[in-house]
Amino acid sequence: MIDCIKKYSIVTWGCQMNEHDSEKMSGILESLGYESTNIKEEADLIIFNTCLVRENAELKVYGNLGELKALKRDKPDLIIGICGCMMQKEEIRDFIKDKYRFVDIIFGTHNIHKLPELLANHNLTTRMIIDVWEDGGNIIEGIPAKRKYDYKAFVNIMYGCNNFCSYCIVPYTRGREKSREANDIVKEIKMLANEGCKEVTLLGQNVNSYGKSLESKTTFAELLYLINDIEGIERIRFMTSHPKDLSDELIYAIRDCDKVCEHIHLPFQAGSDRILKLMNRKYTKSQYLNLIEKIKSEIPDISLTTDIIVGFPGETEEDFLETIDVVKKVKFDSAFTFLYSIREGTPAANMDNQISDEIKHERLKKLLEVLNPISNENNLKLLDTVQEVLVEDTSKTDDTVLSGRTRTNKLVHFKGEKSLIGKIVNVHIVNTKTWTLEGNVISKK
Ligand code: 5AD
Ligand code: SF4
Fold first, then answer.
1. Would you say 257 is a known binding-site residue?
2. Distance from C-alpha of 433 to C-alpha of 334, rounded to nearest angstrom
3. Given CB 3.0 to 4.6 Å as the disulfide criterion, which of 139, 286, 320, 422 pairs with 151?
4. How far is the CA of 181 from the centre of ligand 2 (A)?
5. Matching CATH number, 152-378, of 3.80.30.20, 3.30.428.10, 3.40.50.720, 3.40.50.150
6. 67-116 pLDDT tens trace
7. At the topology level of CATH, where does 386-444 sit?
8. Strand partners for 426
9. 197 carries a ligand binding annotation
10. 261 is in an annotated binding site
């Protein structure tokens, strides 16, 4: 029998925003009758959803694209599409047009809903189809998403960013801040709850400024209260928060909404006031530390995670020590650490005193030497406690071992039946490591 069902494969780089965009593309493709495959050789359509936030993400895309050339040679009907942040840059589109002429379809971050039309047009032409929207359109509602898990889901609450941190390309690729109407968000989450979803992660580049672009001016705190009332939803997470917009009202909402998990991801990026100013972050070290104090005093069991950049242009050893000082004072549960990466088109790319790779790596190493023992210490405090865990998966190496996350977003491993996946259980923690906890299930919710 000839298998006539078309298969697709999507490769995703970058943040949760991209991951969720890929879920939406999967939803669109499956509504067109495509089936997903992880095997590229089997695919009739391969889409690369790209990231531009750091150079290494960009280079990986070019490397992987090169590998597709041979596939296309063996299977000329294979359709290759590229989308995501890289495609919002004209120079990159031109480079792809020139160097990767076997690519069939290029589209951007604002028009993934046009995928069916682009595929139909592809059937009518042998030329590369390029359709990238600049920012400015309305939010497109109602795109079906094929979510990776039934019991947890990403939900966009806003798109874009107005902050223009001087190192960051995102405002240029994702456009200006636009919030979804609270009604649309609540409707989507109610539908998810009806389908058995227990945990939602609200996504936005700066969720704390949610609502500013809406006529209703609904605040993020108000949105949390609305979602907290949705029956069936048991956990609410959100990311990312900007320290300059994290209001008292929001801290109280996190404290008072029982479903909002005790975890805030609050990037501080750098500890030196001089560097923070050059980064255009709009807060000082002491303002950040005061904010952390306030959060900790209102929500004592809060888990705090962050993003840190080392080697921003002009960063001296003294500046770097201010970063280390913040880490020691806050005692983060974990951190994403980045070497500053020049992004053409951002103000920092043209700043003097770019830091050498050698110094960046040295600083990163020193930073991790401070961060890791603190993560370990924080986890050690959980020894012999009982943690509520949403069971997510089996371990990659042993399928009698399950993994899940605490409300504070810590990964826990424990023995158990696969039937527990998607359920919330109580786990007694019997061992802790720097990145994970181990325990025994003591009861189900
Ligand atoms: N270089 C290094 N890290 C960066 N980030 C954003 N832009 C850059 C860059 N040019 C980091 C920031 C941000 C996270 C998502 O990526 O820390 O919070
Ligand atoms: Fe980039 Fe800053 Fe916006 Fe975050 S807040 S997406 S780091 S510009």
1. no
2. 12
3. 422
4. 22
5. 3.80.30.20
6. 999 999 999 999 999 999 999 999 999 999 999 999 999 999 999 999 99
7. OB fold (Dihydrolipoamide Acetyltransferase, E2P) (2.40.50)
8. 388, 443
9. no
10. no
φ, ψ of residue 102 to 5 degrees: the values are: -80, -5
Beta carbons of 141 and 118 less than 8 angstroms apart: no
CATH class of 7-131: alpha beta
- As given in the structure block, the two tokens for residue 233 are 């939803």
Ligand 1 centroid distance, CA of 156 (Å):
20
167 Cα–ligand 2 center, Å: 9
C-alpha to C-alpha distance for 377 and 314, rounded to whole angstroms: 33
What's the pLDDT tens digit per position in 174-216? Answer: 999 999 999 999 999 999 999 999 999 999 999 999 999 899 9
Instruction: Among 308, 309, 351, name the best residue to mutate to test ligand 1's pocket (greatest count of ligand atoms within 8 A of Cβ).
Output: 309
Ligand 1 touching residue 54 (CB < 6 A): yes
Residues 403, 428: contact at Cβ < 8 Å? Answer: no
Are the C-beta atoms of 238 and 206 separated by less than 8 Å? no
Amino acid letter for position 190: K
Tokens 């649309």 belong to residue: 184
Q: Which ligand is nearest to the CA of 167?
A: 1
> Residue ranges per domain, the chain?
7-131, 152-378, 386-444
Please work out whether the CB of residue 307 comes within 6 Å of at least one atom of ligand 1.
yes
Q: Whose CA is nearest to atom 7 of ligand 1?
A: 168
Q: Dihedral of CA 328/334/339/340: which sign?
A: negative
Q: Give the pTM.
A: 0.95
